[in-house]
Amino acid sequence: EVYFKNLSKQKQKEDMEKNGNNHKLRVCVATCNRADYSKLAPIMFGIKAEPQFFELDVVVLGSHLIDDYGNTYRMIEQDDFDIHTRLHTIVRGEDEAAMVESVGLALVKLPDVLNRLKPDIMIVHGDRFDALALATSAALMNIRILHIEGGEVSGTIDDSIRHAITKLAHYHVCCTRSAEQHLIAMCEDHDRILLAGCPSYDKLLSAKNKDYMSIICMWLGEDVKTRDYIVALQHPVTTDIKHSIKMFELTLDALISFNKRTLVLFPNVDAGDKEMVRVMRKKGIEHHPNFRAVKHVPFDQFIQLVAHAGCMIGNSSCGVREVGAFGTPVINLGTRQTGRETGENVLHVRDADTQDKILHALQLQFGKQYPCSKIYGDGNAVPRILKFLKSIDLKEPLQKKFCFPPVKDNISQDIDHILETQSALAVDLGGTNLRVAIVSMKGEIVKKYTQLNPKTYEDRLELILKMCVEAASEAVTVNCRILGVGISTGGRVNPREGIVLHSTKLIQEWSSVDLRTPISDALHLPVWVDNDGNCAALAERKFGHGKGIENFVTLITGTGIGGGIVHQHELIHGSSFCAAELGHIVVSLDGPECLCGSQGCIEAYASGIALQREAKRLHDEDLLLVEGMSMKKEEVVSAAHLIQAAKLGNTKADSILRTAGTALGLGVVNILHTMNPSLVILSGVLASHYVNVVKEVINRQALSSVKSVDVVVSNLADPALLGAASLVLDYTTRRIY
After folding, report:
1. DSSP alpha helices (H): ranges in 341-398?
2. What is the Cα–Cα distance from 104 to 91, expressed in whole angstroms?
3. What is the pLDDT of residue 1?
4. From CA 115, how far away is CA 123, in angstroms rounded?
5. 559, 482, 509, 480: which is closest to 720 by C-alpha?
6. What stretches of 71-217 adopt beta strand conformation (E)?
7. What's the chain's Rg over C-alpha atoms?
8. Which residues, in sequence order, are CB contacts of 67 under 8 Å at separation 6+?
9. What is the chain's percent helix, strand, coil content, to nearest 5?
């Protein structure tokens, strides 16, 4: 005896060394109900039969421990398995909340059990809410999970739960080729997927020849013959409880009318199960001579009952899976198994308004014999699963990897790269030039195109489209992704509709112009349009001195005078889109005439046009040129000549500049008294010549409460283009509008 024991130990040692693993794999199998135990039991027997490789711990929870459902934990004990832990996790109730509370209760109790057991791997079956609690606990406690029957498709919440468990599980045992493909499509590692077949088929395919008449007589009566009775098993559909209860009522009515001996099993523990039991009792099923209502049938006996039935009816997965192995006719009711692979023995009744449809299905199916189906297994699942378990290397990293399909341009998944390449097409419609630029998220002008601004509407729009198309094509070569088009233009603009309502005299034929529609249609991009002064303010808010400032004003000093007002971080447009026409603030009642038709506007004093007018007047009076200045005969007098003369000591030119700066300063004082901003930004080519005079006027003329305002010169090289880009970049990338 000692000799044979030693010989046996030596053989076990050799087997373990051959498998390259001297550590017994500690396997925890957790079973929640009678259905999952029928799939797990064959695996448990296989594990128990090889103690040299495995240590088995059994955890029982869920409906196994409820008397109303037959206290089915007893069949586990009858199978001679030691139950390590019993967890009462079902919260009694009849709605969805009870299911959620049951999951929560299981999550509270499971950590202590898993801490004590410390399994190497946990085997979880299927798609029940209890199984989700098991998988969640194991995953969070860094315990490897083997999921049985993942990748399948059915109806109700079960689909979502099954796929959620798949995402938590490290290893997968599936039953069909389609399920395997679904798992691969869900980015699971192919090397960790085993196509084994359904473990219950190992028992099914060897069970039909056993003594079955005694089992049939025990559950249905002595006078019942094979193929002359019905097995009914229907569960509530948790995503549509009312409809499933109605369908169950119609099913019972049809079965009563069909008048055949019927074995009715109680439903699963789900929201709506108690209501279904009430329907059974309301119709007197438990006392009807043709019916036998039972809470549970041991799986070995249940196999014999469905194998020799005239028909099975309901919405249990058993009907579309296991019963096909015997060719027994099945009527699948409702949507609970929608998407399951089925054999030709299954007739689907998706919906029923009356019992007639179900009754007709019974008449079609009852008593038929179909070819046996092996869609879900060939009877050799358990050996494959045990071999798969032995191959698990516990030294491999626990963190599971997902096998995502290749994604083009993977570098774009880097956030820094995205921020660098997200760009806008910016368009600036000036009085002289038309400019288009590619502007990056960081405010860098990647590429710029400049053309003279045409005089007619048709030519101007044609040129805008041509330049935008060219820039959009070029953006691809410089690795920029264009998010949209922003347009800065003079005049009054309705930014909501993208329409120029009317323009200044500097841009002809530019009133009531819809810019958004033709450009958006041509480029297939969103288009934003706003006034050039507003765009300058937006540029400062995003890239310049106004960044992070709640209230500030921007004044553009160029050919004309414009501006934009930002109040509480938002641009002000006004009720008729005429806000921030700062160039037309009147600072003198009898001042020079402005292009707007009024007199004494800031623009009539301080704009480039106004300075050019005064330079011409001095030149005509031979008072412009001083020593160090020269002009060609054909050269046009401009504001630049006036500024040059002032720098070289021309007192009259200097006086004109100071008057212009004073007019601008008075306008700023009016703005301070109206809006009370904390910052004033002077932008444009003339800003540096005006800033000191403006500060002097504020100190002299403004109320003491606003004298502390900061007045600065913009450091942005191209505020019009940057502002147009800001229209796009702000609205396409921010999360709150």
Report:
1. 355-365, 381-390
2. 10
3. 44
4. 16
5. 559
6. 83-87, 121-125, 144-148, 171-174, 193-195
7. 42
8. none
9. 45, 20, 35
What share of the chain has pLDDT > 70, as a percent?
A: 93
Which residue's entry shows tokens 């297939």? 524
Q: Which residues are annotated as a binding site for an N-acyl-D-mannosamine?
A: 492, 504, 532, 581, 584, 603
The b-or-e profile of 518-527 (16+ CB within 10 A means b, else e) is ebeebbebbb
Cα atoms in the Cβ-side hemisphere of radius 13 Å centred on 563: 26
Q: What pLDDT was estimated at residue 732?
A: 66
Cα-based distances in Å from 537 to 229, 255, 310, 566, 570 = 84, 78, 82, 7, 10
CA distance 365 to 345: 9
Residue list for the binding site: 492, 504, 532, 581, 584, 594, 596, 601, 603
Distances 270 to 298, 300, 630, 693 between C-alpha atoms, Å: 20, 24, 97, 81
Answer for the pair 174, 151: CB distance below 8 angstroms, yes or no.
yes
For residue 573, the number of C-alpha atoms closer than 13 Å in the C-beta half-sphere is: 13
Angle of CA points 625, 628, 629, to nearest 5°: 40
Task: Express each pLDDT in 9-25 by its tens digit.
Answer: 555 555 555 554 468 99
Q: Where do the domains of the chain lie, and which CATH numbers do they carry?
A: 22-198 (3.40.50.2000), 207-365 (3.40.50.2000), 414-544 (3.30.420.40), 545-715 (3.30.420.40)
- The answer to whether 166 touches 174, Cβ cutoff 8 Å, is no
Residue type, 245: I
Q: Which of 532, 622, 654, 730 is catalytic?
A: 532
What do you get for the CA distance between the two ends of the chain, in Å? 84
Virtual torsion, Cα 448, 453, 454, 460, nearest 10 deg: 60
| Residue 68 one-letter amino acid | D
Average pLDDT estimate for 338-364: 88
DSSP H helical ranges for 224-271: 241-258
Q: Is 414 a catalytic residue?
A: no
Q: Report residue 389 as tokens.
A: 């378990």
Instruction: Give the integer Cα–Cα distance in Å for 171 and 152.
Output: 15
Alpha carbons 484 and 728: distance in angstroms, whole number: 6
Q: Give me the amino acid identity at 390.
A: K
φ and ψ at residue 552, rounded to 5 degrees: -150, 165
- Hey, is 446 helix, strand or coil? strand
Closest C-alpha to 82, from 100, 60, 63: 60
Backbone φ/ψ region at 298: left (φ over 0), alpha (ψ -120 to 50), beta: beta
Strand-pair category, 25-31 with 121-125: parallel
Tell me: the pLDDT tens digits for 420-457? 578 999 999 877 789 999 999 889 999 999 999 888 88
Residue 732 in tokens: 């396409």
Residue type, 522: A
Annotated binding-site residues for Zn(2+) read: 584, 594, 596, 601
